[in-house]
Fold this sequence. Notes:
Distance between the termini: 29 Å
Amino acid sequence: MLLLVGDSHVYRSDNPLIQGAPCTGDEDVCAHDAWNSHPSYDVPSFHRIVVHGSTTPLEWLKLTVTPGAHNPTTATSFGPFTWTRITGS
């Protein structure tokens, strides 16, 4: 399952439901381990992307879904999903 979160947020890509899961993000957003808010969860089939909000520079997220793909979990892929951050208009 892929969860996309929007609003006025700073970019973050992680799995907050696994302790110590890798986190990629802007500023110091990864300094807080969200797993501590939900201790004892272990959900490896979950990934969250908090999309860049109304901060600058403006950017958008290009999401690609490839049915049947089993991409590894990285900063830009998870299962059938891959994504790219696009800066500008």
